[in-house]
Amino acid sequence: MTRRARAPRHPQLLGIAGTVGMLGLLVLAWQAGSALHWWGPGLLPTPAEVAGAVRELLRTPDFWSSLTDTLLAVVVSFTTGSVLGIATGTLLWRFPLLGRVLEPYVVSFYAVPLIVLYPVMLVVIGINVWSLVVLNTVVVAIPVLLNTWVGLQAVPPVYHRLARSLRCGAVRRFRQVLLPAALPQILAGLRIGASLAVVGITSMEFLLAPAGLGFQVRYLYEYFEHAQMWAYVVVIFVVAGGFMAAASAAESAVQKARE
């Protein structure tokens, strides 16, 4: 008889340990490359220099102002984009003809970098951070929309028959039967949207904005302040990791509540 492989008791802890271990290996490789002069200090300072620059950043008001601007833009665009995506995906599922008409346009929006619409936002909203928030809201909404739409379409027909046999009204059927069945797909879309929210805002700040973490990276790069620039890059990675960890924790909590 062959023994069945035992599943790890704490898979989440193993995942965290693996992530921390990989981070440690990257820092060691970074330090080794700096010590062996594989790259110059002007390109990539040592980990100690970047860590010192991070400590200095934490003492400056400009850093906290930039961090607040970026976090506010990320949270607002993610929240608004998620609500818009779920609502629109449900609408396209509820009216299949409308969905077939709009599907090519939705997919095109997903494939095209929406930053090309920034001049339109300047005319409509003006030169401020809210033009970036509106664009990023659309960036977040599209994957949430598509996953909501696909998730509702993939609900097994037996669920619909069960709801009809129980004489559920349209609202109750959607809320208690269809939405829970499509929830895993919707949560996957929200995770994608969470990652795009951070990437979108920081990228557009780097290219266009007069404030925020992305702007600080561009500003310090142009003035050859490489240690401080990489310190801001590290902060952006921490923000992105924290946002994704929060999204994953929320997804896990919802999945456990469904069990």
Backbone shape:
globular
Which class in CATH terms? Answer: Mainly Alpha
Q: What gap, in angstroms, lies between the N and C termini? A: 32 Å
Q: What's the order of the H and E elements?
A: HHHHHHHHHH
CATH topology: MetI-like fold
- Computed Rg: 23 Å
Number of helices: 10
Low-confidence stretches: none
The CATH superfamily is identified as MetI-like
Examine the secondary-structure arrangement and name the CATH architecture: Orthogonal Bundle
Strands, count: 0
Rounded mean pLDDT is: 83
Structural class, from helix and strand content?
mainly alpha
Task: Give a quick account of the main beta sheet: strands, pairing sense, barrel closure.
Answer: none
Question: What does it look like?
Answer:
The structure is a single chain. With 259 residues, this protein is mostly helical. It has a single domain (61-258), classed as MetI-like (MetI-like fold, Orthogonal Bundle), CATH 1.10.3720. The chain contains ten helices and no strands. It has helices spanning 11-35, 47-57, 61-94, 96-111, 118-124, 129-153, 157-165, 170-207, 213-222, 226-258. It is globular, with a radius of gyration of 23 Å. The mean pLDDT is 83.
